[in-house]
Prior knowledge:
Elements: E1 2-7, E2 10-13, E3 18-26, E4 33-39, E5 46-51, E6 58-60, E7 68-73, E8 78-83, E9 92-99, E10 115-116, E11 120-125
Amino acid sequence: QVQLVESGGGSVQAGGSLRLSCAASGRTSSNDVKAWFRQAPGKQREFVAGINWNGANTNYVDFVKGRFTISRDNAKNTVSLQMNSLKVEDTAVYYCAADEHPFGVIYTDYARYDSWGQGTQVTVSS
C-alpha cells in the first residue's frame, strides 16, 4: 500500500495561484499513474488531472486545461499540481491518488485508484 500525503492547500482570491504537493511513501510503484481529484460539498469526486509514470503523458479535465499543470518528481516521490487563474468554482477538497496498475492509461474514474491521500482544502473567494 502506498501512503499519500497532500499539502499546499489554502485560501486565495479568484485569479490567484496555489501549488499542491503530494508525497508518496511505502510500497511505491515504478510505473504508476498519479492523479488529482477534487470534491466540492454535495458533489461527487471528480478527476482533475493525471500523469503517467515518467511524466510523458498527462490528462486534464476540460475545465482546468490551460490553468492547471500536473508534474511529478520520481526521485523525490512527489507529484504536484500548479493551479493558476483560480476560480470560485475550483473550491473543493483536493485529493492525490495513485493507480498502481494503470496498463498505460490515465483513467478518470476514481474507482480505478488504489491509494488516496487525506485531502487538502482549497478555497477560492471572489
